[in-house]
C-alpha cells in the first residue's frame, strides 16, 4: 500500500491528486506542521528537511512532490499521467515540471519566505519585489508556451498539468495576496485543470 504523509492545503495535495487520477489505493497520514510533527525523529528519518509530502512504498522513501507525482505516473502507466520513457513527450514533460518547480514555484516561494516563512532576521523586504518580478516574467513565458493548447504535454492530462495548476492556484487564490495571472489563456487553463473531479476528491480525502 502506498503511504503519503502530508497536510491539507500544502504541496501534498498535488500528490493525492495524482493518486486520485490514477485510481490508486493509498493511505494518507496527516503530519501536523503547526504542532511540529514534521520535526519529530520518526518523521525526520523519512524527510530530513521536515517537510511534506513524503511517500513510502515498499522499500522506497521519496520526497519532493514532483518526483513523487512522476513516480505515481510511472507506477500506473494506464493513467497516462506520465509519458513513456525515451519519448519526446517525456522530455517535454520533464521540461514542464522543471519549469513549474524552478521558475514559477521558486519565485512564489521566495515571496512567501521573505514575507513570513523565514526567521525574521533573514527576511529582506526588497526580495518580495524581486521575486514578484521574476514570477511575472515566468508567467509571461508560460503563457507563450501554453498558447491555446488544452494540456502542457501532447493531448493528455499529465502530472505536469496538476503540478503547474497547484502552483498557479497558490498564486491566484492563496492567502491574502491573491494576484492576477496576467494572461487570459493562463486563467482559463487553471480553471479547466482545477475543475477535474480527481482534484475535488483529493481535497476531500486530505480532510479525512
Ligand atoms: N520542494 C518540496 C517543498 C516541500 C515543502 O516546502 N513543503 C512545505 C509544505 S507546502 C512544508 O512542509 N513546510 C514545512 C516547513 O518548511 O517547516 C516539494 O515540492 O515537495
Short description:
The two termini are 18 Å apart. The protein is 55% helix and 9% strand. The chain has helices spanning 12-22, 41-46, 65-75, 88-117, 125-146, 159-173, 184-194, 197-205; strands at residues 2-6, 26-30, 54-57, 60-63.
List the helices and strands and how they pair.
Layout lengths: L1 E5 L5 H11 L3 E5 L10 H6 L7 E4 L2 E4 L1 H11 L12 H30 L7 H22 L12 H15 L10 H11 L2 H9 L3
Parallel strand pairs: 1-2
Antiparallel strand pairs: 1-3, 3-4
The protein binds glutathione.
Glutathione binds next to loops.
Describe the structure.
The protein has 208 residues and is an alpha+beta fold. The protein has two domains: 2-81 and 198-205, Glutaredoxin (3-Layer(aba) Sandwich), CATH 3.40.30; 88-196, Glutathione S-transferase Yfyf (Class Pi), Chain A, domain 2 (Up-down Bundle). It has eight helices and four strands, in the order βαβαββαααααα. The chain has helices at 12-22, 41-46, 65-75, 88-117, 125-146, 159-173, 184-194, 197-205; strands at residues 2-6, 26-30, 54-57, 60-63. It has a four-stranded mixed sheet with strand order 2-1-3-4, with helices on one face. Helix 4 packs parallel to helix 6 and helix 6 crosses helix 7. The chain is globular, with a radius of gyration of 17 Å. The mean pLDDT is 96. Residues 10-11, 33, 38, 50-53, 64-65 line the site of glutathione.
Task: Report the C-alpha radius of gyration, rounded.
Answer: 17 Å
Number of DSSP E strands: 4
- What is the helical fraction, as a range of percent? 55-70%
Neighbour order of strands in the largest sheet: 2-1-3-4
Amino acid at each position: 500500500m502506498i503511504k503519503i504523509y502530508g497536510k491539507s492545503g500544502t504541496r501534498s495535495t498535488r500528490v493525492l491528486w495524482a493518486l486520485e487520477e490514477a485510481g490508486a489505493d493509498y493511505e494518507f497520514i496527516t503530519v501536523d506542521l503547526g504542532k511540529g510533527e514534521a520535526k519529530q525523529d520518526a518523521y525526520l528519518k523519512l524527510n530530513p528537511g521536515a517537510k511534506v509530502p513524503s511517500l513510502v512504498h515498499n522499500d522506497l522513501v521519496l520526497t519532493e512532490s514532483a518526483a513523487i507525482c512522476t513516480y505515481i505516473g510511472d507506477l500506473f502507466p494506464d493513467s497516462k499521467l506520465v509519458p513513456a520513457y525515451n519519448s519526446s513527450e517525456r522530455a517535454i514533460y520533464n521540461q514542464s515540471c522543471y519549469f513549474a518547480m524552478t521558475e514559477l514555484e521558486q519565485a512564489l516561494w521566495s515571496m512567501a519566505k521573505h514575507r513570513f516563512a523565514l526567521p525574521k532576521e533573514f527576511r529582506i523586504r526588497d526580495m518580495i519585489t524581486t521575486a514578484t518580478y521574476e514570477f511575472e516574467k515566468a508567467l509571461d513565458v508560460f503563457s507563450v508556451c501554453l498558447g491555446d493548447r488544452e494540456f502542457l504535454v501532447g493531448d493528455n492530462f499529465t502530472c505536469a498539468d496538476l503540478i503547474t495548476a497547484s502552483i498557479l492556484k497558490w498564486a491566484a487564490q492563496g492567502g491574502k495576496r491573491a494576484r492576477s495571472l496576467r494572461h487570459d489563456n493562463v486563467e482559463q487553463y487553471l480553471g479547466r485543470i482545477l475543475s477535474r473531479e480527481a482534484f475535488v476528491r483529493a481535497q476531500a480525502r486530505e480532510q479525512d
